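Here is one chain, start to finish.
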Amino acid sequence: MRQLSKIETALLLIGGLLMVVGSGASLFRQEWAPYVFASGTLLFAAMQMRQSYEGTNFTIRRLRRIMLISDVLFLIAALMMFANQANFLGLDFLIYIKYVHNNWIVVLLLAAVLQLYTSHRIANELEKENPEAKKR
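Its structure:
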């Protein structure tokens, strides 16, 4: 896997931290929370997309695709967080309550579980692919 530079790694961590702060602040009904979460999501997803895999291992390639799906789900959660503040989509109130209101949490949870699974599995697969890298 292509390793991120120190600046890119710092941006990835800052993005993750902003996502946590934004989602936590949203639970306390802060109006600025979606903006913080969305900026963190953009940073996090952009840095993960810069991290690429040039090898031929099919399993790692599949896990990278799942990880990119999880990044898209993070972006959808950010959009749904904005929609949760006000019905800017122009939906009927009952449809809004049923499909949008606080459902960003479900999308966020799904993305986080996929992210956790893929990061763990990619690390294990890379270790299998290059066992002497762990000895260093």
